[in-house]
Amino acid sequence: MIIPYFEYSKKQIFYQIKDNNSQNTLLFIHGSGGNSNFWENQFYLNIDYNIIAVDLPSHNKSNTFPELSLDLYVDVVKKLVDSLKPEKLILGGHSLGGVVIQEYYFRYPNDVSALILCATGGRMRVSQVIFNSIKPDYQVFLNNLRVGLFYRKTSKEIIENAILESSQMDPEVTYNDFKICDAFDTLDKTNSIDVPCLIICGKYDQLTPVKYSQFFHDKIKNSELYIIDKSGHAVMLEKPNEVNKAIEDFININL
After folding, report:
1. Helix (H) or strand (E) segment spanning residue 53
2. What are 62-110's pLDDT values in tens digits?
3. Residue 164: Cβ within 10 Å count
4. C-alpha Rg value of the chain to the nearest Å
5. How many structural domains does the chain have?
6. CATH number at residue 94
7. Which of 151, 167, 166 is nearest to 236 (CA)?
8. Sign of CA dihedral 250, 215, 121, 144
9. Residue range(s) defining the domain that contains residue 88
10. Is the C-alpha dihedral spanning 216, 165, 49, 68 positive or negative?
11. Three-class SS of residue 41?
12. In the sheet where 50-54 sits, what is the strand order?
């Protein structure tokens, strides 16, 4: 696997790529306080697309930026897409990543062949409990992820690995990610999405409940909804085989 960087505003942005020697690209964006490793299982997808997962600015191996915003995140993705020039582009986003790819689509609809909206919403109100737990004691926030992010029977190994990844994040960055989510509201534009959309949600997702995904499915004409049992918000980590099959079937049928 190639592990490259690209330059944005004289800083380095890290991304992972599985190069399948394709003219098409599937680009994944992680959630709040996450990084590209949260998509590690999706590099095993059997598709005729190059598969990329990016670390957003100030996340994991990407350089630190003084100010974080949705505009910055979208601009970084745009810079990467323009450098790749794919014939077909599928954007996949988890939680905050879903916010980023929706905003990208609304700004650059002609770039996008399809969207994968994973555990996300058109409006992303964040509980004050989450905000209150991040800055005073980040460990409290991390401990709460065991309940908030995962289905109760998800394996301890999966949970601990995800929390370890999140623990390396600057709490201020995670806080800002959630602020971006909290301010996001494009419900009035959801029905204008006219590319094929795959909507994936864990049945027991507490952060972005099934009703968020059902709203997408009701409003987006060309959409498929997969509600995956025995999984929570981190559905692509908890049930990678089911998520990957849904993605493969979606691409084979629609693209």
Report:
1. strand 50-54
2. 999 999 999 999 999 999 999 999 999 999 999 999 999 999 999 999 9
3. 11
4. 17
5. 1
6. 3.40.50.1820
7. 151
8. negative
9. 5-254
10. positive
11. helix
12. 5-8, 11-18, 50-54, 24-29, 88-94, 114-118, 197-202, 223-228
